[in-house]
Amino acid sequence: MDHLPFLGQIIFRYIDTYIHTLRMYVCMYVSILRGGLIMEAAVQTCNLIKIFSREEIIKNCNMTVPRGSIYGLLGVNGAGKTTIFKMLSGLLIPIGGTVKVLGMDIVSKRDEVLKNIGTIIETPIFYEHLPAKENLEIHLSYMGIENVDITSVLDAVDLQATNRHPVSKYSLGMRQRLGIARALSHKPQLLILDEPTNGLDPMGIRKMRELFLKLVKEENMTILISSHILSEIQYIADTIGIMVNGTIVEEIPLETIKSKYPNGLEEYFFNIMDGGQRNV
Predict the structure, then answer these.
(1) What tens digit of pLDDT does each residue of 199-255 get?
(2) Segment 108-116 mean pLDDT
(3) Would the pTM of this model clear 0.90, i.e. be above it?
(4) What CA–CA distances, in Å, run from 109 to 102, 183, 270?
(5) Are 204 and 107 in the same domain?
(6) How many Å apart are CA 257 and CA 96, to the nearest integer?
(7) Of the candidates 157, 158, 217, 148, which has an alpha carbon nearest to the alpha carbon of residue 186?
(8) Which residues make beta-bridge pairs with 52?
(9) Residues 143, 52 within the same domain
(10) Counting Cβ atoms within 10 Å, is residue 243 exposed (0-12), middle (13-18) or buried (19+)?
(11) Residue 75: what are its φ and ψ, rounded to 5°?
C-alpha cells in the first residue's frame, strides 16, 4: 500500500496537465471567436485572476497578443492594465488562470522569459548618480549580454552617450527615453510598455512612434503598450484590447475599428466606456 501516495501524485499531475492544456485550447478558441486572432501568440492569458486585500482586481482575464505586432491595451485608470503587465513580467503571481509569454509559463519559466522581454512599468528606476551610458552597461551586465552598441541604442531614443550628466539631472522626458532604451537594449522579443510616452514632448512622442514601428518591421519585435493618448495608439497598433473592471471585454483588429467607426479609435473607445454595443 506504500505505493498509493506516489500513484496519487502521478494521477494528480496528469489531471493538472490535462486541465492546463484544456484551458489553453479554450482560450485560443475564445480569442479566435472574439477577434479572429489566429497568429502565433507572443502572450496568451487564460482566465487570469489576481486578488488584493480580498478584492478581485483581475477577473478571468483572457488576452492574446500576436507575435510581430503592436497590441494597444486601453482602459480607464484602475481598470487593471498595470497589474496585468506586472503579471506578464513576473512581478506579480496570479492566483488563478495561466500566463504564457513567448510560449513559456511565466511562473515556472520566469528567468527564461525575463531574458527575452523588455519592460517599462510605472516609473523607471535608475542609478541616479550615473549617466545614461553607465546605467545601460550595468543593465546589460546583469542580463549577461555583451557586445551591444550602447551609443546606437541611446541615439535611437535621442539621448547622447557622451552626455556625462547623472540621471538625477535628467528631465522627466529624458528619463522616460532612457527607460525605453534600457528596455530594448538587449534586443528582446517582446516589449511591455506601460504609458511609455509619459513626459515626452510632441517631437519625442513622434520619435518613439517611429521607433516602435521600426522595431516591429525590422526586428520582428512584439510590442504590448498601454496609453491614454488614443491618437498615438491609433497610429501604431495592429490590435486593440479594451480592459474594463479587471477583464478584457474585447480584442479587435484596428482595421475593423476604422471600418466601423468613422471617427476611429476614440469613437470606438468611448462607445465601449459608455456601455454601447461591444461587438462591431
Answers:
(1) 899 999 999 999 999 999 999 999 999 999 999 999 999 999 999 999 999 999 999
(2) 94
(3) no
(4) 10, 20, 38
(5) yes
(6) 32
(7) 148
(8) 55
(9) no
(10) buried
(11) 170, 160
Q: Cell numbers 482575464 correspond to what residue?
A: 61
- Angle (deg, nearest 10), helices 172-184 and 202-219: 0
Output 159-165 pairs: Cβ under 8 A, ≥24 positions apart: 159/132, 160/132, 161/132, 161/133, 163/131, 163/132, 164/131, 165/131
Please state, in angstroms and rounded to a whole number, the distance separating the CA atoms of residues 58 and 94.
Answer: 9
Sheet strands (E) in the chain: 41-52, 55-66, 70-74, 96-101, 104-105, 117-120, 190-194, 222-226, 239-244, 247-253
Alpha-carbon distance 94 to 55, whole Å? 13
> Rounded distance, CA 186 to CA 115, Å?
8
Q: Are residues 93 and 22 in the same domain?
A: yes
Structural domain of 213: 3-116+189-273
Least confident of 33-37, 124-128, 145-149: 33-37
Contact 85, 226 (CB under 8 A): yes
What residue type is assigned to position 171 of the chain? S
Residue at 280 is within a domain: no
Q: Check residues 199 and 119 and name the one with the higher pLDDT.
A: 119
At 81, which amino acid appears? K
